[in-house]
Amino acid sequence: MNNCLGGRHRNSLCEGTGCPEHSVCRSECGACGSVASACPSVAARMVHLSNSQQTADGLINSLSASLSNLAAVQAASSQLAPSGRPSSEPHHSSLPDILTSNGEAADGRGSAHHTGRIGKVIIERLENERFLSGFLTRNPFRKKSPAEDSAPGWRLFGKVPPKPAPDKVASTVTADSSLSPTPLRKTDTEASTTALILENRPSNLPAKSAEEQQRHRHEYEQMVEAAKKKELKDAKLRKKRMQQKLKYEEFMAHSLKVWNEDILPNWTLMQHNRKAREYWWHGLHPRIRGKVWKLAIGNELNITPELYEICVSRAKDKIELLQREASEHKSAESDSLDRESSVELIRLDVSRTFPQLGLFQKGGPWHDSLHSLLGAYVCHRPDVGYVQGMSFIAAMLILNLEVADAFVCFTNLLNKPCQLAFFRVDELSMGSYFATFQDFFDFNLPKLAAHFSRHAFTPNLYLYEWIFTIFSKSLPLDVASRVWDVFFRDGEEFLFRTALGILHMHEDILLNLDFTYLAQFLTKLPDDISATALFKSVKSIKMQIDHRDFERVLASHRASSSTPAPTTSART
Q1: pTM of the full structure
Q2: Can you give 421-488 as a three-state secondary structure string?
Q3: Cβ atoms of 568 and 300 closer than 8 Å
Q4: Dihedral sign, CA of 254, 260, 262, 267?
Q5: For site-directed labelling of 390, which of 139, 161, 396, 428 has its Cα 20 to 30 A away?
Q6: In this structure, are residues 279 and 251 in contact, taking their beta carbons and an 8 Å threshold?
Q7: Does residue 498 contact residue 483 with C-beta atoms inside 8 Å?
């Protein structure tokens, strides 16, 4: 059994440098080297073993003293005993006689010899027991000392923080700047990926040279500087947008007052007034949007709320009839020719209308209203029926009007020449609109128009859905509402002008796309389109070619195709 190399104390667990517990001994002994504090569990175990060792040493000393005294007493008693003792007298065995092996006589000299031998045996057995107890109490799964756990090293993910760079750490580099961004929060389980460039390599890899360390510090400073510039740029952009928003809100509050006091009470006289049209261009306040839309659309078809209730009742009856036929497995070939059977298709489209709002889905507050309005229109205009996409137009109206008023506006809006041509899929009329759009496209954006022509990317591939839903499905809801405001002021011309404004707004991007990516981009426009930027682009679009406005260009294409304008009559 060896002592600790420091010699300060005796550790029964330490067997020298080859002992598994030698590192524990070194952490416990100040003279051995490290003076780091040991693990509480290891310290407690060492204290327990030390107390056990002191107890065993005391027991051995007391037994040795007792055996020595017993030997002295035995020797003295043998000298005082009478020489002639009858052999028949009973003999009382002493302790040395009992401890004596092989039946030897216990005279004074033999008793002392045997007593000392027995004592040595007892001491050796106690020493062995103490060694065995220390061995059994040793923990085979020794934990590392805190000094070992806290040693710095190369770790991306772990509880040990990375070893700091010798010359300059990340915090020093960040602190050198006068306008430092919000410091990165580092926890015990993660490290900054940006600051990893300043870390030393692991010990099994070649160390960084001074030139490489300098280059890494320079790259890190560049990354920090770029992050600060981006943060400042984003902060300025957020501040600018907030100022624009506050300014627009102030303008809308003033506009609301003008509309309520001057324009709406005198609608017939003021609707074409220059001042009213200017306020109209900047958007309508949500409080008056429904009123202005209803006045601008008008009611040429003389739709009444009573007619709406009749159409809703017919739609419900039609749905019940279709359900009974489906349950009875009856064939309805004759009904399939009737466009009123498209009432069943409404169910599939209502749940897809503005899903981000959650207002028109099943269980939403306006699910039944939208379903009833579309069903009533199908019964009112079976020649048109229901076409997927109508639900977006109806939903836009329901968001701003009562259901009965929304039905009135919906039926009159879809009776306009442009909407009627698209919803009835009149290819000749739609072709006239596409050709008119192409003329203004070539005139306003010749470079982009040539790029589209090279890739055979025709207007019908992207313009159909925009006109079909009046941009309500393609643009964000607030931007689409602004488009609707001016559409009711300028008519169908503004729809094609808005389409050109979208192309003008993204011209730089579109010039670098091929056919496939053009279709993907224009089918799913970016979600961050702002109304201010869009209307700025729309305002730059000119709608006159050689002193011919949109209506004259459209009329020339209709005449060339010998297609009369779509009828505006409706069956009430």
Answers
A1: 0.61
A2: HHHCCCHHHHHHHHHHHHHHHHHHCHHHHHHHHHCCCCCHHHHHHHHHCCCCCCCCHHHHHHHHHHHH
A3: yes
A4: positive
A5: 428
A6: no
A7: yes
Tokens standing for residue 26: 């070194």
Query: Mapped to the 3 state alphabet, what secondary structure does 99-163 carry?
Result: HCCCCCCCCHHHHHHHHHHHHHHHHHHHHHHHHHHHHHCCCCCCCCCHHHHCCCECCCCCCCCEC
User: Amino acid identity of 333?
Assistant: E
Q: Is 371 helix (H, G, I), strand (E, B) or coil?
A: helix
Q: Rounded to whole angstroms, what are the CA distances from 188 to 185, 198, 276, 323, 354?
A: 10, 18, 63, 64, 45
Chain-centre distance for alpha carbon 55: 64
Q: Which residues pair with 139 in a beta bridge?
A: none
548 φ/ψ angles, rounded to the nearest 5 degrees? -110, 125
Radius of gyration of the chain from Cα atoms? Answer: 49
User: Residue type at 83?
Assistant: S
SS3 545: strand
d(CA 405, CA 290): 9
Q: List CB contacts of 498: < 8 A, sequence separation 6 or more.
A: 466, 471, 483, 487, 534, 538
Q: What b/e readout covers 84-103, taking b as 16+ CB neighbours within 10 angstroms? A: eeeeeeeeeebbbbebbeee
Which of 335, 320, 317 is closest to 382 using CA atoms? Answer: 335
What's the rounded Cα separation, in Å, for the pair 163 and 116?
62
Give the Cβ contact number of residue 272 at 10 Å. Answer: 9
> For residue 198, what is the DSSP state?
G
Q: Which of 100-114, 122-136, 233-247, 496-510 has the lowest mean pLDDT?
A: 100-114
- Dig out the tokens for 115 from the structure: 């007593």
**Rounded alpha-carbon distances, angstroms, from residue 285 to 257, 293, 329, 533:** 10, 12, 52, 19
Q: What is the pLDDT of residues 445-457, one digit of tens each?
A: 999 999 999 999 9
Answer whether residue 86 shows pLDDT above 70: no
Residue 500 · residue 441 · CB < 8 Å: yes
Three-class secondary structure of residue 437 per DSSP: helix
Answer whether residue 416 shows pLDDT above 60: yes
**Residue whose tokens read 């052999």:** 87
Q: How far apart are CA 184 and CA 169, in angstroms?
A: 14
Residue with tokens 């078809």: 301
What residue has token string 């327990």?
Answer: 48
**CA 26, CA 32: separation in Å to the nearest integer?**
5
